[in-house]
Automatic annotation (TrEMBL):
Domain of life of the organism encoding this protein: Bacteria
InterPro entries, sorted: MUG/TDG, Uracil-DNA_glycosylase-like, Uracil-DNA_glycosylase-like_sf
Official protein name in the record: Mismatch-specific DNA-glycosylase
CDD domains: UDG-F2_TDG_MUG (cd10028)
SUPFAM superfamilies: Uracil-DNA glycosylase-like
Organism whose genome encodes this protein: Priestia filamentosa
Stretches assigned to the Uracil-DNA glycosylase-like domain: 6-158
Amino acid sequence: MEKVADYLKEDLDILFVGFNPSIRSGHIGHHFAHPSNRFWTILEKAKLTPRKLHPTEDYKLLDFNYGLTNIVSRPTKGAEDIAKEEYKEGREELRRKINKFKPKIACFVGKGVYQEYRNERKIPWGIQGKGVVEGTIDFVAPSSSGLVRMSLEDIVAIYRELNHILKHLHS
């Protein structure tokens, strides 16, 4: 399997943080590559990208000043296959990345990702009270997995809030 590269640079508008790459992503070396994953559709419908990108175009998110990373870098079938030690190491590494690159918003693609990062269980959608890393807004959005039982419209509505936050930050 290929390593799925992070896409990071300083002062990103949004850093999207996933659990970990799927087996499919690991095979082709690109984020959110499983056919049932709706990440790229969600970004387009939320008007965060002008068109639906293909997983092999994941690097193009940098053109929009967005980045991609995961809390755990090892590809697995599902998040249940991630060991506690991997989460602990990933949590520390993610804090280092956010401290170093200072994105305006860290958007966690799934409550479970943020629960592991924050080590808390009661997490609302959207902006979190106090971010873990000072200067970065923590934002929790639904997972883009096809297994999520929310409607696509409800998921997109939450992601669309990112546009409002960015407008406020850039004004």
